[in-house]
Amino acid sequence: MTPEGPADHWEVEALYDTCFAPGREALSSYRLRDGVPPVAGLSHVARDSGGILAGAIRYWPVRIDATPALLLGPVAVHPTRQGEGLGAALIETSLAQAAPLGWERVMLVGDAPYYNRFGFTLLQDVEMPPPTNPARVLGRALAENAWAGVTGKVRRWYD
Ligand SMILES: CC(C)(COP(=O)(O)OP(=O)(O)OC[C@H]1O[C@@H](n2cnc3c(N)ncnc32)[C@H](O)[C@@H]1OP(=O)(O)O)[C@@H](O)C(=O)NCCC(=O)NCCS
């Protein structure tokens, strides 16, 4: 697993197109990414021994009102490589690097049954831009109690 570099960019986009439904960029989470670069050093790619891209994860910075947080995603593993633990490795390896970079909390929009195993739980008072199913808004603290008292609308980093 290596940090994503400029040469990986279009291959990662193609992987995401393969793994997500068409129109993924219409999702509200993409509005938070528009015009904001991903977090340097945290986005990673996983390649097999032949150099074929098997999985990728990216992170963006967001704010909940004024409070900074990481937005995890998209994360995807090629359909031919799913179920081998690559998704877990991408998530855990990158998250382990987030706290040393100064990040205290991470959130995502995803399936609770998958993300519960990584310590993500429902963020009841954190509002993603509509339309987002509130049951899919999940968070994990990277520092003790880092989500306590954090409430409000998720905003673009530069808004
Ligand atoms: C979700 C994804 C990244 C997981 O990657 P992976 O390498 O297959 O994951 P792992 O091998 O670490 O874990 C596989 C386990 O997760 C489970 N799992 C995968 N997706 C799941 C989901 N949406 N809900 C619940 N469990 C899920 C599998 O059933 C498997 O369970 P097991 O360990 O009990 O057998 C991958 O399936 C993928 O790219 N899916 C399409 C894109 C996507 O949905 N991305 C996430 C957006 S929220």
TrEMBL record:
CDD domains: NAT_SF (cd04301). PROSITE patterns: GNAT. Residues 1-143 form the N-acetyltransferase domain. Transmembrane segments: none annotated. InterPro entries: Acyl_CoA_acyltransferase, GNAT_dom. It comes from the Bacteria. This is N-acetyltransferase domain-containing protein. It comes from Sulfitobacter dubius. The lineage of its organism: Bacteria, Pseudomonadati, Pseudomonadota, Alphaproteobacteria, Rhodobacterales.
